[in-house]
Structure formats: structure tokens, C-alpha cells
Q: What sequence folds into this?
């Protein structure tokens, strides 16, 4: 048989062989076309199912937006002072005046037991009674969670319409006080569904947590409040695609979505018959197109074979070596041989380039592997883990290191936002939730929180993240890291404890010195009083620095603390100047200077009389603090006959000192260097003054 086939093939002309080749190639093409048609059918199936899911998610978002509008309205009303004061008449009047009570919605106020106190739809004087069972359940849920609650649908006693309510808890003195409810007619959601641009043969519905219809299009035989089909009620909690009989008995393919703000379910479905018809239409169209293309391809192949065979009939190839054509060969043959030679050289060069590329690819792969291993090692010993968050699905993916930080076994984190928030310390949950939601707006996350571990210990987590995408219609995407900063927090706590302990001990030491001075030195000696007064000034400065965490002292507060003990009334001291934080290095010496001037003013100057005034002004120059001390209303100022401690302290501490002694009082101006390191300036000034 093989010999017969060889003889038959050997007798074929070039045209026959080309046609045979076309026929052989055509058979795989037919198989490929069949595969493509099947793939198109499967793709159509997936596309329709995906369209159902997308439509359900879109309508779910629209339902959330509608509910969120009512929640925002209710939360604004819940802060009304009239409602908090239980002044329902003024509350209703205000709500009607600003247009919050319309034909589409009305307001209900009830007490903590569900007794109706206000219904803007009820006729005046009509007894209101109790809330319906559905409204009462939603009200209890709102008080238990402290958050807005959405009820199931029910028939309103006053309106006679099917409605659902948004219930906002109002607390007073930490206890349930009133429940503010806004009625949402089910007809609103029928209009919402009617606004969706969906195919005419799709079925769209919304059911509440009890499986009753809130709205459905096309309505057919269904009404609001009617139970959905048993199949849908059984699959209401299932996300995604499910198949079950509709309420009319038709087998449908349905996609569920669950609005975030309520316990409702949105379903978008299509009858299986319409679903199959859509797929078969796609397959039919593809089959007709493929058959036409194949027929045209066969005709084109036959024409090309004939066009190739005609010139080849006149060509005789004399050599099989590329480039070695005989002079008598036709120009086409010589050109063919030349091209074969060039192709052979190009192939050799291509093979060399491909080998080089393979070597570079292998090296890059090794480098990437080493880099990934280094990053993994750095994450492990640096006590940090990475995470990503998909804004479209709301799912998070954690690395093994971040799961370890939260005390979880690898690959056990569910990936939901609520699951993460439950791992955060209860006292930090509100702040962590606020910071993460703010990051969706700002695009940056910079926060920290505590995490209780299974062994009872507490771990501090610092979070850093950045939003990607979110512009031009793309879905937002967040990448970030969580870092274990427990050791740093513990170090800060110990440092703060040591600082406070040191401050406490220094204050105690100053108090001990002051007590010793009172006990061991003559009590009526002016020098002893001056000494204890200066100790008190130092203690006051130390207290001010400790309160500011040793970052410096407010200049106005520093001056006021040193002058106040010598003034008989607060209005004897007038301050003017910008807000300035005095560096720690200058605080003590400036306080001693002000203290000495206040002490002198209480002995010889303006503070000796009730009508005396001291005005202190200051400004900050490029390299110095300029201070002006002005006394008025006291006795005439006279230059001291001898140089005392205060004068020596001034001349050795400040620069550019100018003192004017006049009938109106003392005027003193001086500067303190601001950019120099004066760490030991106070001690040196005191030593030289003595």
C-alpha cells in the first residue's frame, strides 16, 4: 500500500501536489474552526453569566446609594436639638419647613419600647399606637448595634403602601431615648429598577431578608410583599450564579448580589430558554461565517496553486545547494537560491541571538529569585508583612509574615475587611476603621493600632499603604505593609517613664533644698528669701519644661509664671509679642533674668504699688530674641548705688543691655542670642554673678 501511495504521489503534478497540500491543511483548519465555534459558545455562556453578575452588582450599588441617601437624611435629623429635647412639634415643623417631609417619604419617631410618638403621614389627633413587628425588629437592631438599621418591607398602617424604614438610634445620657425612622416606599425601588438599561428578557428583583419581594420587573403576576420563589429563597444568601425555578415555574439562571447597607438581596436572571437561544444564535452565526470562509479559502487555494504551477512548469532547478544556481536557470530560480543562502545565514544569526537571550533570561530569573529571597528574609527579620487590597472585590491578600504578626496561621486570613477589623483591639477599632476609610480619599494610609494575640499579649502594628489606580475608570488598588513596632512602643513608654521620674526627682530635690534653706538659714534674712525665691523660679521652669515634654517653654507663660508671684493683681502684667517656644537651652537663664527683674520691681519699682504696671514686649530677630521691660505707675526709678546679684546676672547673661532710670519708671532692653548653643549658659552666669 505504501508503495502504491508513493507511486501515485510521484505521478502528481505540482498543481496537484499544491491542491493536495491545501486539502491536508484544510482538515486541521476545519477542526480548529469547530474548536473556535465551541469556544465561542462557551464564551457566550460565560459572558451572559458575567453580565448577569455585573448587572446584579450594579443594581446592588444603586440600592445602596438610594438607602445611603435616606440614612444621611436621617442622621442629619437625628442631631436636631428639638428631637433631643423631645419637642416633637417644633421638630416636625422644622422638618416640613426645610422640605424633608414629602410625598415620597415621611418621618416616624418612636420611644425605646416602640410606641409611636410622631408620624408625619398620620392625620392630626389620630392615635398612633405601636410600630409594626418589622419596624420594631429593625429598631431593636439599631439600638443594639448603635448604627442605622434597614427594616424588611411591611404595609404602612397610615399610608396603606408597602414600605421599608431607615431606623436611626438616638441616645440620651448613654441610654436609648428615641428611634428616628424615615419611610422608604417600595415604589421608589420599582422606579430604580425601571431606570436600569437591561435586556427586555431579563428578570430583575429585590427581596428582603424574609424572602419577600420589594420590587420586580417585569412584574407579571408578582406584587410587593409576595414571597419569592422557593428556589430563590433557598439561594438568597449565595453570592454569584444559581439555577432554580422562577415564581412562574420557568427554569432561570440567576445572579445574586447583596447590598452592604441592608439585609436585602438583588437578583438578575434570564430564562434558560432565552439563555440557550442567545448561545445558539452565536453558534449559528459563527458556523455560517466559518463555512463561507472555508469555501472562499478553498477557491483561493485552487487559484493560487494554478498561479504557482504555471511559472514553475518552465523552471528547471539544476542545483540543490543554496546560491549555486546554473547560469541557464531562470532568474526566479537564481533569486530563490540567493534568498535561501541569505535565509540560512539569518537563521544561523537568529539561533545565536536566541541562545544569548536564553542565557540572559536564565540569569535574570536567577537574579529575581535571589532578590525575592532577600526581600522575604528582610520581611521576616524586619518584622514586617505586605498586603494588597482590591477595590473592585473588596478582598485583601496577606503575606505569611503579616498573618504571623496578627497571630494567625499561614493562609488562614479570610481576606475580608470585617475579618481584619475583628483582629484589631476593640479600643482601636474605631480609629483604625476611620483611618482606613480616610485613606480611600487621600490615597495614603499612615496609622497604627494594637492587636491582641492568642497568648494574651498585645502587639503594636504600624500600617503604611498607598492607593494605586482609581482614576480614568480603573478600579482602586492598595498596596502596603504592616510593621511590628511593639519594641519601639515599649521603648517610648520606658523613656517617658524615665523622663517623668527624673522630673519628679528633680522637683523633689529642689523642694528639699528649699526646705533646708527655710530650716537652716535665718527666716527673716532678705538673702535667704531671695535664695528660696530663685529656687522657686527654677522649680517653675522645670515644671513648664516637663509639661512640654522637654521640647521648650512658651515665652508668654514663662514670663507670666515668674512675674505673677510678685504682682498683687493679674492686670499689673501686660504682655505683647508673637507666640514663641523658648529652647530648653535658654529657658533657665531667661527665667532667672525675668525673675530678678520682677523681684527688683516688687522691691523698688512698679510692683510696689497697686497702680503699678509692668509691660513686657518681645520680638524674634534673625539671631537674637529682643526683650523690652517697661515699668509705669510706680515710684521714680533710680540707679542702684551698688551692683547687686540681679545686675551682675543681667550683664553676664544678656547682650546689648540698655537700662533707663526715669521719673515714670525703669525701661530695660536686652537681647538673648538665639542660634548659639547655650547649654551651660545659666550655670556660668550664676557662677559669675556670685
A:
Amino acid at each position: 500500500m505504501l508503495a502504491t501511495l508513493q507511486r501515485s504521489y510521484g505521478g502528481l503534478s505540482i498543481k496537484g501536489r499544491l491542491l493536495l497540500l491545501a486539502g491536508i491543511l484544510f482538515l486541521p483548519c476545519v477542526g480548529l474552526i469547530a474548536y473556535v465555534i465551541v469556544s465561542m459558545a462557551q464564551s457566550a455562556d460565560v459572558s451572559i453569566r458575567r453580565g448577569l453578575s455585573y448587572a446584579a452588582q450594579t443594581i446592588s450599588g444603586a440600592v445602596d446609594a438610594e438607602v445611603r441617601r435616606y440614612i444621611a437624611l436621617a442622621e442629619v435629623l437625628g442631631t436636631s436639638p428639638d428631637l433631643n429635647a423631645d419637642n416633637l412639634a417644633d421638630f416636625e415643623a422644622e422638618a416640613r419647613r426645610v422640605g424633608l417631609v414629602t410625598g415620597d417619604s415621611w418621618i416616624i419617631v418612636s420611644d425605646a419600647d416602640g410606641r409611636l410618638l410622631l408620624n408625619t403621614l398620620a392625620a392630626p389627633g389620630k392615635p398612633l399606637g405601636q410600630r409594626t413587628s418589622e419596624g420594631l425588629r429593625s429598631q431593636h437592631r439599631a439600638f443594639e448595634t448603635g448604627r442605622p438599621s434597614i427594616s424588611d418591607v411591611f404595609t404602612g398602617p397610615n399610608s396603606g403602601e408597602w414600605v421599608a424604614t431607615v431606623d436611626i438610634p438616638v441616645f440620651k445620657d448613654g441610654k436609648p431615648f428615641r428611634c428616628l425612622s424615615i419611610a422608604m416606599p417600595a415604589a421608589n425601588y420599582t422606579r430604580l429598577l425601571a431606570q436600569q438599561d437591561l435586556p427586555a428578557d431579563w428578570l430583575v428583583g429585590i427581596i428582603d431578608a424574609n424572602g419577600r419581594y420589594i420590587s420586580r420587573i417585569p412584574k407579571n403576576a408578582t406584587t410587593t410583599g409576595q414571597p419569592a420563589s422557593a428556589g430563590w429563597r433557598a439561594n438568597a444568601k449565595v453570592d454569584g450564579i444559581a439555577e432554580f425555578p422562577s415564581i412562574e415555574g420557568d427554569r432561570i439562571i440567576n445572579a445574586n448580589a447583596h447590598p452592604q447597607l441592608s439585609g436585602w438581596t438583588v437578583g438578575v436572571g434570564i430564562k434558560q430558554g432565552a439563555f440557550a437561544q442567545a448561545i445558539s444564535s452565536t453558534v449559528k452565526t459563527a458556523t455560517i461565517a466559518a463555512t463561507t470562509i472555508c469555501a472562499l479559502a478553498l477557491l483561493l487555494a485552487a487559484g493560487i496553486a494554478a498561479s504557482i504551477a504555471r511559472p514553475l512548469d518552465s523552471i528547471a532547478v539544476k542545483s540543490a545547494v543554496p546560491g549555486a544556481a546554473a547560469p541557464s536557470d531562470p532568474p526566479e530560480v537564481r533569486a530563490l537560491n540567493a534568498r535561501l543562502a541569505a535565509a540560512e545565514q539569518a537563521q544561523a544569526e537568529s539561533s545565536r541571538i536566541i541562545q544569548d537571550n536564553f542565557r540572559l533570561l536564565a540569569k535574570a530569573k536567577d537574579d529575581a529569585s535571589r532578590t525575592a529571597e532577600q526581600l522575604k528574609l528582610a520581611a521576616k527579620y524586619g518584622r514586617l508583612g505586605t498586603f494588597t487590597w482590591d477595590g473592585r472585590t473588596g478582598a485583601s491578600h496577606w503575606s505569611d509574615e503579616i498573618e504571623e504578626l496578627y497571630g494567625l496561621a499561614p493562609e488562614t486570613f479570610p481576606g475580608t475587611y470585617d475579618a481584619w477589623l475583628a483582629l484589631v483591639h476593640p479600643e482601636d477599632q474605631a480609629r483604625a476603621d476611620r483611618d482606613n476609610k480616610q485613606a480611600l480619599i487621600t490615597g495614603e494610609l499612615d496609622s497604627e493600632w494594637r492587636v491582641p494575640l492568642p497568648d494574651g499579649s498585645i502587639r503594636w502594628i504600624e500600617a503604611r499603604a498607598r492607593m494605586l489606580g482609581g482614576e480614568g475608570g480603573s478600579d482602586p488598588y492598595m498596596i502596603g505593609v504592616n510593621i511590628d513596632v511593639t519594641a519601639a512602643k515599649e521603648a517610648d513608654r520606658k523613656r517617658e517613664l524615665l523622663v517623668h521620674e527624673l522630673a519628679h526627682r528633680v522637683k523633689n530635690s529642689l523642694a528639699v533644698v528649699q526646705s533646708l534653706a527655710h530650716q537652716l538659714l535665718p527666716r527673716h534674712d532678705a538673702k535667704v528669701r531671695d535664695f528660696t525665691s530663685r529656687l522657686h523660679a527654677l522649680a517653675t521652669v522645670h515644671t513648664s519644661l516637663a509639661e512640654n515634654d522637654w521640647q521648650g517653654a512658651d515665652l508668654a507663660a514663662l514670663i507670666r509664671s515668674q512675674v505673677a508671684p510678685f504682682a498683687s493683681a493679674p492686670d499689673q502684667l501686660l504682655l505683647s509679642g508673637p507666640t514663641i517656644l523658648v529652647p530648653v537651652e535658654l529657658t533657665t537663664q531667661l527665667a532667672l533674668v525675668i525673675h530678678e527683674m520682677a523681684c527688683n520691681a516688687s522691691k523698688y519699682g512698679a510692683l510696689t504699688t497697686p497702680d503699678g504696671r509692668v509691660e513686657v514686649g518681645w520680638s524674634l530677630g534673625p539671631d537674637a530674641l529682643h526683650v523690652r521691660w517697661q515699668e509705669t505707675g510706680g515710684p521714680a526709678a533710680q540707679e542702684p548705688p551698688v551692683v547687686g546679684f540681679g545686675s551682675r546676672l543681667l550683664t553676664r547673661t544678656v547682650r546689648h543691655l540698655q537700662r533707663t532710670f526715669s521719673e515714670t519708671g525703669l525701661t530695660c532692653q536686652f537681647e538673648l542670642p538665639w542660634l548659639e548653643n547655650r547649654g551651660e549658659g545659666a550655670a556660668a552666669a550664676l557662677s559669675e554673678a556670685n
In short: The longest strand covers residues 162-172. The radius of gyration is 44 Å. Residues 14-78 form the longest helix (65 residues). The chain has a mean pLDDT of 78.
